[in-house]
Backbone:
């Protein structure tokens, strides 16, 4: 068995269509795959069709944007029912916030002389969620920085001209939507928030109190030290453990589909809740 429980498709900021993603994951040896697009479940239907065709187990999922003490924190919901009315209305709100934010990003960048970024980002996003990744691609194509990464650093992070603060869902609110949809809430990539030890403890305490059940111990960008720190946090807070590459594109050398280190064996994997 090979699990990858965090991946993106063109329904948000991934480059593969849902069907391409599933087929690639299958070829890479993944047996259980969660499609976790940002604030959107639109890719799940197509992904399931391809999963049935190639015999891969697809876990219906989503990655919800939340704001916690002014920081963006991502909560993955695994095994959700995408038709849950509560989840659907929550995601609809975030989707409309994404659009409003993108328009404002476009206006702010225009004030700096960068014209047409909203229209270009919307075009790149197609029918999927509009994200900062789409703005980054446009800005990089305009030659404004050497790489997508550099574009983020110069234009799209807090304090830079294209950054617009957004109050996404509340932490407990997002966990509530996931549980209301029959899913399991997983706190994604805990080492990426650059929290001190005491803030991470506070985050995990509130997450658990709100009904959160698992921590993404093996995350795509995590090094050995990050994995050890997350494993320690999972034990301390009594959380189950998840693994996910956060795959967006084959161009990211450090985020390979399904190529993930093993979980430390004393941890309880989140899939122990499932019978298949
Ligand atoms: P958004 O949810 O629209 O704010 O976009 C966030 C997305 O941008 C994340 O899911 C990542 O895929 C991508 N991202 C964030 N920071 C960086 C970065 N420094 N370099 C490359 N991609 C990034
Ligand atoms: Mn992303
Ligand atoms: Mn994320
Ligand atoms: Mn992600």
Residues:
């Amino acid at each position: 068995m090979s699990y990858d429980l965090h991946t993106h498709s063109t329904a948000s900021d991934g480059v593969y269509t849902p069907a391409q993603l599933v087929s690639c994951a299958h070829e890479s040896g993944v047996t259980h795959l969660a499609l976790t697009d940002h604030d959107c479940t639109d890719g799940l239907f197509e992904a399931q069709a391809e999963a049935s065709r190639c015999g891969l187990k697809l876990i219906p999922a989503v990655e919800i944007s939340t704001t916690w003490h002014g920081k963006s924190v991502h909560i993955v919901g695994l095994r959700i029912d995408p038709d849950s009315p509560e989840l659907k209305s929550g995601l609809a709100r975030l989707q409309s916030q994404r659009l409003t934010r993108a328009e404002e990003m476009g206006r702010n960048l225009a004030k700096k002389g960068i014209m047409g970024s909203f229209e270009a980002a919307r075009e790149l996003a197609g029918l999927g969620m509009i994200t900062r990744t789409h703005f980054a691609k446009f800005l990089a194509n305009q030659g404004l920085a050497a790489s997508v990464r550099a574009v983020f650093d110069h234009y799209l992070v807090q304090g830079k001209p294209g950054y617009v603060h957004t109050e996404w869902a509340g932490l407990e609110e997002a966990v509530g939507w996931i549980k209301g949809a029959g899913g399991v809430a997983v706190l994604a990539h805990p080492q990426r928030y650059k929290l001190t030890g005491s803030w991470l403890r506070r985050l995990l305490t509130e997450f658990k109190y709100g009904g959160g059940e698992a921590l993404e111990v093996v995350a795509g960008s995590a090094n050995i030290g990050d994995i050890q720190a997350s494993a320690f946090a999972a034990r301390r807070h009594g959380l189950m453990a998840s693994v996910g590459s956060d795959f967006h594109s084959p161009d990211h050398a450090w985020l390979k589909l399904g190529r993930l280190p093993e979980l430390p064996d004393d941890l309880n994997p989140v899939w122990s809740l499932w019978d298949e």
In short: The chain has nine helices and seven strands. The two ends are 10 Å apart (CA to CA).
